[in-house]
Amino acid sequence: MSQEKDLENRAFEEMRMVALKRLEGKDPLKIAKRTGIPFDPESQKFILNTLGQTVEIYFPDYEIRTPLDPWHHLLVLHYLDQADGSELYGQWMPFGDLPGGMARGGDFDRKSEGELSNRLGNRTYESVERACQALGGKVIPSNADVCGVIPLFPRYPIAIKLWFADEELPGSGRVFLDKSAEHYLSVEDAVVAGTILLQALFQEESRR
What we know:
Largest sheet: 5 strands, antiparallel
Order of helices and strands: HHEEEEHEHHEEEEH
Strand order of the largest sheet: 5-9-8-7-6
Strand content: 15-25%
Number of domains: 2
Number of helices: 6
Structural class: alpha+beta
C-alpha cells in the first residue's frame, strides 16, 4: 500500500470515529424523521437507497456492511448526524452559493462543468436518462437538453443539467443542489457528494 493511500485510509478512519461518536445516544426514530431514511425497530436497522444501492445501517453501532466507497460511507454518517428535517425548497443553486461555499463550492462548479462537457457533452438524451435512472434518479423538464435529478439521500437531491454539443457549440453541463442543502451536509461534504455522484453517473453512462 502506498504511503498516500495509507494516509487517506487513516484520515477516513479518524473522521469515521468522530462521526460515530457524534451519533452516540441519538434516538433512531428521530434520526429517521429528520433524514427520511426508514428505520425498522424490529431488525434495528435503517434502510437507505443511495445511487442505486440498498444500504443497511445497523443500530446502535451504525455498522454498514454494504460495500461503499469510504467517502460515501462517511457521507452517510454525516447525513444521519447533520440532517435537521427541513423541507426542500424546490429551487436549485450552484455549489458556490452554499453559505461559506464561494471557494470550495465555486471550485467544484468550475471543475464539474469541464468534466460534464468532456464526458457527456457528446452523448445522447437516452443514454444519460438511463444512467440517471440506474442511480435512482429521473429526468425532469428544464431549460437544458436534459436535466437528471438524483437523490443521493432522501432529502439531498442533486441535479445535473446538460446541453449537448451541436455544429456551433461544444456540450456543457452544470451541477446543482436544492437550496435546503445546508440543512443536511456541510460545504465540504457537499463537494464530496457532488464528486461521488458524478463518478457514479459517468461510470453508469459508459455502460450504455
